[in-house]
Amino acid sequence: MRDRGGESLLGTLRRDTDLLEERPGAPVLGAERDHHPFLERGSVTSVSRMRVVVRPEVSVPAPAARALLDQSEVLIPAITYLLPSTTQGVTGVAWGRPDLRPATVMVLTGPALTPRRVRNFSTTLTTGTYFGMRGSMPPSSHRTTCGHPAGPTLTARYPRISVVRECDRRSGHMLSSQRNKLLCETGPGTPMGELLRRYWQPIAGVSEFERQDAKAVRIMGEDLVLYRDGDGNYGLVDRHCPHRRADLAYGYTEDRGLRCNYHGWLFDHSGACLHQPFEETRHPEGTFKDKVRIKAYPVAAKAGLLWAYLGPQPAPLLPDWDRFYSRGYKQIAISEIPCNWFQCQENSIDPVHFEWLHSNWSMVLRGQDGPRAPTHTRLGFDEFDYGFVYRRVRADTTEDDELWTTGRVCLWPNCLYVGHFEWRVPIDDTSTLSVGWFIDELPGDAPFEQRRIPCWHAPVRDEKTGRWIDTHVMNQDYIAWVGQGAIADRTLEHLGESDRGVIMLRKRMFEEMEAVAAGRDPLGTIRDPALNDRVYLPIVGGLNRAAPGAGPQPFVFLAGQPDEVRSELEQAWQQCAVASGAS
Fold this sequence. Notes:
Layout: H1 9-16, H2 37-41, E1 44-47, E2 52-55, E3 58-59, H3 64-71, E4 80-81, E5 92-95, E6 105-109, E7 114-118, E8 126-128, E9 144-146, E10 154-156, E11 163-165, H4 177-184, H5 191-196, E12 201-205, E13 214-219, E14 222-228, E15 234-238, E16 252-254, E17 257-259, E18 266-267, E19 273-275, H6 277-282, E20 296-297, E21 299-302, E22 305-308, E23 329-337, H7 341-346, H8 352-365, E24 376-384, E25 387-394, H9 402-405, E26 408-411, E27 415-417, E28 421-428, E29 431-440, E30 455-457, H10 473-482, H11 500-517, H12 563-580
């Protein structure tokens, strides 16, 4: 059997052997690789420069095989299929990269093995994952039968080895537990942690430091202290003093940095040790302090937020989004959510949940029996330089509506942008910092300058009942996210048509993790200052809009808005209304 370029399949296996991913329990590839029993009998096999995965015997009931290849869609990793010859069946091999999904694969069919490009291959095959694994076939109760709308079936038999379940969009598109871990773990040295560390992350509000000089923060599993010194510099350093590991969250700031309250060692925002009181008293000529540094990360202020960069130097530019400059009253709200960041971000590319979670369920909570929300009839997903745009048509809209022509943005890598921003910053693998940046349009067009952008912390539980708050849009999101568990078990899910955006997001995450591992800049990083001036993001309704109505609208996104913030908004509204002659 030969591939598209004429190279034998076994030759390809030999060529790529030194690049294969080792699998626990798999024998070492050696002389036997040219006589692999599964290959001789006919197998489902995946081959790429990254890995080889052998799937044991597959039978294709005749005359369904050719119809099956012709009619469905590849939404599983592009697996190589060696279909056993039968009188009425088809023999062939489908080539593709198993790390990319969805994919178009090459299928070699028929006695002459003529190459042809095939889309639409559907299977819900449950598959083994070890190359070279030997073992007896399981009883018939361990067989998996995979249906197809047109009637044909695939029956897969597999030995007693570890299983990765990959399914198509009709019956679920489940991840293996190993790939799920890749998406969720963000600590230092993890693939996702290394990816997210290539971006500036919002971690606090500037206005928080009107009332304090230092605060403990935990970001992607790292315990740190964020502070503002007397010279106005922001610092982000290890929470523990390198002298005797005292907690620097209880240190105090001076003009040049943060001083430990235990023995007085002083550190600046770059991590340099500036003063060791007793050591310098005893040894004025000493240089011990020059040999001591504390872990430190850059911090920058923009749009009322404090941003941290935890990755390698040189750091990319902090994105200068155009929305930051819109005229309006701005505020920042922060919540801590007890679940993994990625189930929060998947919500950013899930349009249909608006219909149910925020519309229909809200009506139920209010005791309303009226007509339910318009149903979604069409979804579209497109990738652009800074993430994805999702589009929708509902029963009450057409393709001429901005919800389709403009769409909304799943902002890479961990944000939703719908006129306001919602970042999902990992605290650790089981908790997330939700950082929301909001703007209320104001009446008229007279200039409006906001002296400060207030930052407040939003509650997630009702203090009286202990239940999750369900009265506001993002609080409802939190309920959906936390309900999936501290870390969602994606091996148990069954994705459908509405989840195409989620599948795209996961695929891109895996690709960008590989890009970082290969030493490349990932998606959306900006290094050219000429490209970082009021960077455009699509927005329904336009960037600058005059507010309608007789006054500011209630804040619908999060519960717990402070009275002082609401009062500031009302004052800004009245100021602009008077200036425009509207009041």
